[in-house]
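Request from the bench team (R.T.):
"We need a structural guess for the complex before ordering more guanosine-5'-triphosphate. Sequence and SMILES attached. Just send the tokens back."

Command: build protein-guanosine-5'-triphosphate structure.
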Amino acid sequence: MKFIDEIEIHVKAGNGGPGAVHFLHEKYREFGGPDGGDGGKGGDIYLKANSGIQTLGHLLKKEIYKAENGEAGKSRNKSGKSGEDLILQVPQGTVVEDADSGEILGDLTFPDSSFLAVKGGKGGLGNQHFATSVNQAPLHAKPGFPGEEKFLRLNLKLIADAGLIGLPNAGKSTLLSVISKSHPRIADYAFTTLTPNLGVITGDDNRRLIVADIPGIIEGAHRGAGLGLSFLRHIERVEVILYVLDITSVDPAEDLRTLQTELASYSEALTERPVLVLLNKMDCIDYDSEFAVSISEKLKSPEFWKKTGQVPEFIFISAKEKKGLEKFYSLLFDLFQDVSSLAEKMLPGWKE
Ligand SMILES: Nc1nc2c(ncn2[C@@H]2O[C@H](COP(=O)(O)OP(=O)(O)OP(=O)(O)O)[C@@H](O)[C@H]2O)c(=O)[nH]1
Ligand SMILES: [Mg+2]
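Reply to R.T.: structure attached below.
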């Protein structure tokens, strides 16, 4: 199924059924009173978070989603059957907006959370209600009320604790594949990853963190270069940013600057999150080479970080050879000491 993370849907709840006009006919009682029952209520439409679904693509199938109408009232004061509710399954992390006003209506982040999108109309009253002392045989009943109708914009924001941010080819997907059971596509060319991947890291004490791997970001991404920045929505809610740099690049520190600038142009708030810097592909150079030392010096200097005001930890790793990962885990889990991991709230409902 194609990964679709933003769609608009048209939803229409069921109409209420009409009330009935009916009179009691019984043996020996030819002119019994009015006994027309009420119409049934129209079905509601709910959106429900389902951890087994990863995209909104399946909702592109229909032009309009309609819940069932209520049935008409019956004789003998019997109400019509209510229309059945319609439940649309969406991935966890779906944000619901009114497409016309832009108002945020709901956020389906928690497992099995559900949201009443449109309400079915009430059924009309049957003629049983309209008998009066002057009119004991009312010939009218009420029609049902129409069901609500809305255009909704659904926006998927994946749920993750930490997000991998890097230029294309830095090794983000390779890293995700070695720290979790996730199997993202990995290749030696830019923009291998076209849609986000999630993986779960399990720490020594069995604490878990969800890590998101997203497509690579290049200079000018905020103006649409490369794959643009829209994928950053998937890390909007992460607690920690993990910058992945390729140590074999001409100037990894400059790469980091590019990433910071792009991130800031998407959301200043994102740049205020705690950061870890991962210098990947260390199997390709010596730790004590002049180059490695000069990068370390740069990343240690408060001058480099003066905009954010915090000098983050950085670690040399090799995703390919699984080196430096222990230190990475310990620093990462340390950052989550005071914040609760979303994974803890989401799992076990969430499937890797
Ligand atoms: N030598 C070496 N190569 C690595 C390492 N990590 C990743 N690679 C290689 O770098 C290339 C790119 O890796 P990916 O994991 O696809 O990179 P990515 O950052 O996900 O790239 P995009 O999805 O295009 O943004 C692949 O050929 C990997 O095998 C590493 O630690 N050492
Ligand atoms: Mg990738």
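Two things stood out. Residues 166, 168-174, 186-188, 190-193, 215-216, 280-281, 283-284, 318-320 surround guanosine-5'-triphosphate (ligand 1) (CB under 6 Å). DSSP finds six helices and 14 strands in the chain.
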